[in-house]
């Protein structure tokens, strides 16, 4: 018997909380022709979490549950329960899904840690994995991060990983071809951090390699700028980096944005963070191939930042009680400006 799916979460009130019906971020983003989103943690049963997620966003990514280690413990054995829950939530709330990620050097299943098999066997495992995961969600994922973070941080090279070491750097073109075959309708992204210009040797090497992939006919549709940024970030530099990929005709996505700040964060710091959110979205909206803007979580109550960057946090648009912060208002401002401009330039309907 088909399981009855849950009804959608009812939106309580607009985030402005002033009693008036204020459009949510997703309504404004739609008027700008982009998607706005966040990653999703396994907290869909928490009413406040689910309510804000459904109300404000139309583009979701599983924070961890589509990673290889979360899906599979033994070769050929997969557990899709948590990933399916998010897919179901997204369908009920008319949200597009960004799949993350088919191949990553991190979050590997036990059978790939300390891998001692042959190159041919590993290629086969990669093919089967991509087929299994992208094939399961075929037609339901708008964009896939096919490979994540393959470049070294300190030199013009690939980072060592089981894939680059055992297969060689050809594992990347292979993975894109497998993904295209498994889900021909999905857009395929390359996703990485510090492509916003913080480490020139890395961003330049990525750009050169992406051009080589395109020249070889690798089916790559866009670049995901993770954008794990901080209060000292240079938005102009990030815009320059995005521009050169847009010039190649590639789609541009911001995939994992957070602006971490030193803790405890005072009012002035959060106001600065609000301007950074606004300014980054503003520059993105200027690229004709800019498609989607996602933060890595939406509430400070659920963020990877404090666990990863010592002494930093408060990086997201909502606080721990789901109250909108200046970052949220910064995003609204950029979207409102853009929606206003597009309304003026749109051709009349009749
Ligand atoms: C992080 C998650 O947020 C954590 O919960 C997990 O423990 C490790 O991974 N770049 C990525 C994301 O591509 O998958 C990472 O997510 C953050 C950095």
Q: What is the number of beta strands?
A: 12
Head-to-tail CA distance between termini:
48 Å
Secondary-structure content class:
alpha/beta
Question: Which descriptor suits the 3D outline?
Answer: globular
Give the neighbour order of strands across the main sheet: 1-2-5-6-7-8-10-11
Radius of gyration: 20 Å
Largest sheet: 8 strands, parallel, barrel
Task: Spell out the key features of this protein.
single chain; 350 residues; alpha/beta; TIM Barrel; 2 domains; 8-stranded parallel beta barrel; two-stranded antiparallel ribbon; 12 helices; globular; binds (3S,4R)-3-hydroxy-2-oxopiperidin-4-yl beta-D-xylopyranoside
Structure overview:
The structure is a single chain. The chain has twelve helices and twelve strands. Strands 1-2-5-6-7-8-10-11 form an eight-stranded parallel barrel, surrounded by six helices. A two-stranded antiparallel ribbon has the order 3-4. With 350 residues, it is an alpha/beta fold. It has two domains: 8-34 and 43-57 and 256-264 and 271-343, Alpha-Beta Barrel (TIM Barrel), CATH 3.20.20.80; 59-220, Glycosidases (TIM Barrel), CATH 3.20.20.80. Helices cover 40% and strands 18% of the residues. The model has no long low-confidence stretch (mean pLDDT 95). The termini are far apart. Strand 10 (251-262), helix 10 (267-285) and strand 11 form a beta-alpha-beta unit. Bound molecules: (3S,4R)-3-hydroxy-2-oxopiperidin-4-yl beta-D-xylopyranoside. The site of (3S,4R)-3-hydroxy-2-oxopiperidin-4-yl beta-D-xylopyranoside (XIL) has 6 residues, from loops.
């Amino acid at each position: 018997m088909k399981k009855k799916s849950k009804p959608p979460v009812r939106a309580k009130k607009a985030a402005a909380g002033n009693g008036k019906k204020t459009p949510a971020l997703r309504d404004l983003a739609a008027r700008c022709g982009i998607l706005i989103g966040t990653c999703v943690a396994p907290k869909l049963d928490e009413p406040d979490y689910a309510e804000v997620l459904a109300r404000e966003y139309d583009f979701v990514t599983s924070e961890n549950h589509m990673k290889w280690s979360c899906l599979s413990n033994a070769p050929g054995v997969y557990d899709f329960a948590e990933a399916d829950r998010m897919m179901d939530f997204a369908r009920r709330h008319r949200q597009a899904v960004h799949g993350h990620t088919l191949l990553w050097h991190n979050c590997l299943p036990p059978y790939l840690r300390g891998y001692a098999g042959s190159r041919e066997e590993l290629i086969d495992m990669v093919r089967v994995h991509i087929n299994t995961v992208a094939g399961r969600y075929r037609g339901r994922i708008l964009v896939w991060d096919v490979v994540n973070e393959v470049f070294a941080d300190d030199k013009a090279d690939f980072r060592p990983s089981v894939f680059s070491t055992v297969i060689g750097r050809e594992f990347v073109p292979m993975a894109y071809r497998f993904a295209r075959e498994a889900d021909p309708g999905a857009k395929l992204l390359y996703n990485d951090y510090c492509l916003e210009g913080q480490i020139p040797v890395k961003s330049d090497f990525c750009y050169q390699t992406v051009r080589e992939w395109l020249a070889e006919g690798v089916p790559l549709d866009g670049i995901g700028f993770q954008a794990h940024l901080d209060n000292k970030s240079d938005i102009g530099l990030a815009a320059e980096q995005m521009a050169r990929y847009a010039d190649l005709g590639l789609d541009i996505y911001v995939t994992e944005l957070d602006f971490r700040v030193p803790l405890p964060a005072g009012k002035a710091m959060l106001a600065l963070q609000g301007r950074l959110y606004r300014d980054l979205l503003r520059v993105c909206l200027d690229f004709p191939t800019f498609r989607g803007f996602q933060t890595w979580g939406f509430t400070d109550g659920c963020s990877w930042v404090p666990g990863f960057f010592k002494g930093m946090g408060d990086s997201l648009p909502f606080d721990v009680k789901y109250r909108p912060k200046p970052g949220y208002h910064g995003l609204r401002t950029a979207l409102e400006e853009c929606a206003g401009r597009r309304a003026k330039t749109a051709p009349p309907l009749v």
